[in-house]
DNA sequence: CGCCTCTTTGAAGAGGGTCAAGCGAGGTGG
DNA sequence: CCACCTCGCTTGACCCTCTTCAAAGAGGCG
């Protein structure tokens, strides 16, 4: 698919392009390019010149960085309709890697920057999104700085379920449902600022306590959302 | 000072207003209002309707939130020329309190939002600032999630000195200099996700090791920036 | 079936939290 | 001017959570 079609895009109404009229959209169309990523494939490298920005159409990606001694910290997860990359910046401040097979709509940063500056409506959307992302990131700081391992994992599972269930469109009601974890245990540890062993132990304990079920490594069921919410602090 | 004068503003060239022409500036002038805050005074309360946004002219303020069990986490520090508040949002996602006597230039959010939407240049500045703030916040996540108490405090002191020395304009060279900490030990603990005791112990150890000097509670000298940089990871 | 990777589990240890007491600078009142 | 009080900070002792190190278990895939 080298000829993207914004008009037919799955995330058309949720991404930053939502407010554009059809003329603007086809202009954007002309500078964008679809790209598929396999799980594990890297899209951007930390410290590189910031050449790309992108919209996520499908899949989950991680933003991450490393300490001097090589420990990874995942700085954020990016889902369909989220924007990704560093417009108006020199270098990419974090690495970006696909956690699942993914589908993104990429732009050369220079093209995108120019387009954005000429289309305030897009720039406004981008601003709203960035502000929302900043709020989300700050909430994550509370988790990293002040929560116990148990609280961290409970918070993580609850948020993840909301994200996975239905693209975040509606809160999850009714029967507990099985869903796929897009992250390995190690990656969950890197999100929460824990070690893989601690994550694994917390999973086991929650399962033993009947709060969750783990049909397989990558599958989860939240049996007791109430109790998990309680735990999450 | 109820009649602000943007043209004469100390942070005129560094704040988001930097790119405005004089006509725009006087319009902004007419919707803004100067306000002085005493150290400890609260400007915004978490969860309140988002009614205000502001530019910091002078002083240091903190953004903070609390866990369910009452532990505070400082989400960010705001310095002169920084922007503060949540434009285009319903509620204030964190509390804002002055750490030192401060001087801010406040706007009714509704007024500011309208002005911003009508002046893409301002909105663009705001976007650049928000993106930079997001990068800074993400770097802080690495600190919270992956660093030891010692690394945290070393990082904190180094960054703080850069901020305090000269408004962040130039890197600090030459002789070690005494400067004022705008935060109490407890507040430092809340920034770093530690307890006051741990912060205090780390201070004492660094002093004993000759890395820093503490002429009084609120004064610091970084004697060995090299070594501290090493420690900070 | 066997290998490889990811995950789980166990045991030991350290870093930081908690609780409690002591210190000291600044402010107040005698 | 000094004694006293207060509040923030420091220091000590102990304990708990999470990390570290090590080994065994469980899927997945050739």
From TrEMBL, chains A, B:
GO MF annotation, one: DNA-binding transcription factor activity
HTH crp-type domain boundaries: 147-226
Single GO cellular component term: cytosol
Keyword field: DNA-binding, Transcription, Transcription regulation
The keyword Transcription regulation belongs to this UniProt entry's keyword annotation: yes
Classification via SMART domains: cNMP, HTH_CRP
Domain Cyclic nucleotide-binding: 16-85
One Pfam family of this chain: HTH_Crp_2
Record-linked PANTHER family: CRP FAMILY TRANSCRIPTIONAL REGULATORY PROTEIN (PTHR24567), FUMARATE AND NITRATE REDUCTION REGULATORY PROTEIN (PTHR24567:SF75)
Name of this chain's protein: Helix-turn-helix domain-containing protein
Organism this protein belongs to: Qipengyuania algicida
Species classification: Bacteria, Pseudomonadati, Pseudomonadota, Alphaproteobacteria, Sphingomonadales
């Amino acid at each position: 698919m080298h000829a993207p079609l914004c008009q037919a895009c799955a995330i058309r109404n949720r991404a930053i392009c939502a407010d554009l009229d059809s003329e603007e959209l086809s202009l954007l169309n002309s500078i964008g390019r679809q790209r598929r990523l396999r799980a594990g494939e890297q899209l951007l490298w930390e410290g590189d010149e910031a050449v790309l920005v992108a919209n996520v159409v499908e899949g989950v990606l991680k933003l991450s960085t490393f300490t001097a001694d090589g420990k990874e910290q995942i700085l954020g997860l990016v889902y369909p309709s989220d924007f990704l990359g560093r417009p108006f910046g020199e270098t990419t401040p974090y690495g970006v890697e696909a956690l699942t097979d993914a589908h993104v709509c990429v732009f050369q940063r220079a093209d995108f920057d120019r387009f954005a500056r000429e289309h305030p409506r897009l720039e406004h959307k981008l601003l709203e999104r960035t502000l929302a992302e900043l709020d989300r990131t700050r909430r994550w700081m509370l988790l990293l700085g002040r929560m116990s391992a148990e609280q961290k994992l409970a918070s993580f599972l609850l948020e993840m379920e909301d994200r996975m269930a239905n693209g975040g469109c509606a809160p999850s009601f009714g029967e507990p449902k099985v869903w796929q974890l897009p992250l390995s245990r190690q990656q969950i540890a890197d999100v929460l600022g824990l070690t893989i062993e601690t994550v694994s132990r917390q999973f086991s304990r929650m399962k033993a306590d009947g709060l969750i079920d783990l049909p397989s490594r990558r599958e989860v069921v939240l049996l007791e959302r109430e109790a998990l919410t309680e735990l999450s602090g």
